[in-house]
Specification:
Radius of gyration: 21 Å
Low-confidence stretches: 406-426
Strand content: under 5%
CATH class: Mainly Alpha
CATH topology: Growth Hormone, Chain: A
Order of helices and strands: HHHHHHHHHHHHHHHHHH
Number of helices: 18
Structural class: mainly alpha
CATH architecture: Up-down Bundle
Shape: globular
Largest sheet: none
Number of strands: 0
Distance between the termini: 28 Å
């Protein structure tokens, strides 16, 4: 099996459980008595945990290796799904989202870093930048297809309710937990890794992590472009809450039935991620005509506008149409963004820099959850979604930041400079 096929297969198993829980993630706690404001505070816990752990876990992945950290992230995901499924109080849901925060901190970087490292290690690959962007855009399509499949299964489970209506919203979490076990097994078999250049031993890896983190922070301090790319995540994290977490709430308001909203969200989420997969598949075509920067600016502005349209929609049809338009550009924007990040670093700092970006996104998402939750409670959910859309569009100018004019290189590693030159010539 080729490297790209293994990367995509593991990615599919990683994101299929996410598709299962997306349609019910907000509706389960609300159905168990939490208010919208309490739910916003609960999901903010994830961002706080990520803020504390993101950078150390990224440095740990660079020090000890990609596969061990990826498997550890799956085990925390398993714990989070199980706790969430049994939670009945805000505190219990907060514990579940805290575990999810550990999972997300460990998960942000090892798998894609493993793929990019393996591309750079293969001397037969001549166009490394092109290989990476095709692999990551295909990854985004796999993510979309996996989430779509999971969402369809989730909707069928909720509608079928084989364990009764009381457990209808929790069953997707139990199925997701079983799929995580399959993800771990696949990683053990398919995720081969040369760890000879990594620090030997767990204790030595832990000791080396602060040094690796410090090198990543120094890289961020030296590079204007990298700082701007990380700052993009502040706006993206804040704005994504609008269509990921508040869209199901708005839909339940428009149809006046949470169970009906959950049943609708399954096929709607599936279709949205299917559209997203098609959008991601268009990335190579877009980059043959325009630069990564130009496409990134356009996609952020378009996505902000589509989310604003969701907030202004007066009925469920308009809301769902806006969601489809949002996801049409969502994965494509993410694939190009991650490629731009990878261009700025070498293998010794790759996971650390991805963690820096995620460290910006997750707390911003927490702020967004609390702020938009307060707006939804005090004014309306529609207005909260509009504010999130405006925040998404505000990230666009950050892609226009250029390296310093002093003549000093803005990228740390020689391989990154070469890949950037290849990409610029596309």
């Amino acid at each position: 099996m080729s490297l790209r096929a293994r990367f995509w297969l593991i990615s599919g198993l990683r994101w299929l459980p996410t598709g299962l829980i997306i349609p019910v993630m907000a509706l389960l706690p609300l159905g168990r008595g939490l208010t919208v404001a309490e739910y916003g505070s609960v999901i903010a816990v994830q961002g706080i945990v990520v803020l504390c752990l993101e950078l150390p876990t990224g440095g740990f992945a660079d020090a000890v290796g990609r596969r061990p950290v990826f498997i550890a992230s799956a085990l925390f995901a398993l714990a989070s799904y199980l706790v969430y499924s049994f939670a009945q109080t805000p505190w219990a849901f907060a514990v579940a989202t805290a575990l999810s925060g550990v999972f997300r901190a460990l998960d942000s970087g090892p798998l894609s870093s493993w793929f990019v490292d393996r591309v750079h290690e293969d001397p037969a690959v001549l166009d490394r930048a092109g290989t990476v962007v095709r692999g990551l855009s295909g990854y985004a399509s796999v993510v979309g297809a996996s989430i779509a499949t999971g969402a369809v299964l989730s909707a069928l489970l909720v509608a079928w309710a084989p364990l009764g209506r009381t457990n209808a919203l929790v069953l997707p979490y139990w199925i997701a937990a079983g799929l995580v076990v399959m993800q771990v097994l696949a990683a053990l078999v398919l995720m081969d890794e040369d760890r000879s250049k990594r620090v030997a031993g767990l204790v030595s890896s832990v000791r080396a992590t602060p040094r690796v983190v410090l090198e990543g922070v120094r890289l961020l301090a030296r590079s204007r472009v990298l700082r701007a790319l990380v700052a993009v995540e502040l706006f993206w994290g804040f704005g994504m809450v609008a269509f990921e977490s508040f869209m199901p709430i708005r839909l339940s308001e428009l149809v006046s039935d949470r169970d009906l909203a959950a049943a609708i969200m399954g096929p709607v989420t599936a279709a949205a991620w299917g559209v997203s997969a098609l959008g991601a598949a268009m990335v190579p075509w877009l980059l043959r005509r325009w630069s990564m920067v130009a496409v990134s600016v356009a996609l952020r502005i378009v996505q902000g506008g589509t989310v604003v349209g969701m907030g202004l929609a007066a009925g469920p049809v308009g809301l769902i149409a806006g969601l489809f338009a949002t996801y049409a550009v969502h994965s494509a924007a993410g694939a190009i963004y991650e490629t731009l990040l990878h261009e700025q670093v070498g293998s010794q700092n790759r996971a650390t820099v991805l963690s820096l970006a995620s460290m910006a996104m997750q707390p911003a998402g927490s702020v967004g959850a609390v702020a938009l939750g307060a707006i939804a409670t005090g004014a309306s959910t529609g207005l909260a979604i509009v504010v999130g859309g405006v925040a998404l569009a505000l990230a666009a100018p950050l892609f226009l930041v250029r390296p310093t004019s002093s003549g000093a290189p803005d990228v740390s590693a020689e391989e990154s400079r070469l890949d950037g030159a290849r990409c610029a010539g596309r």
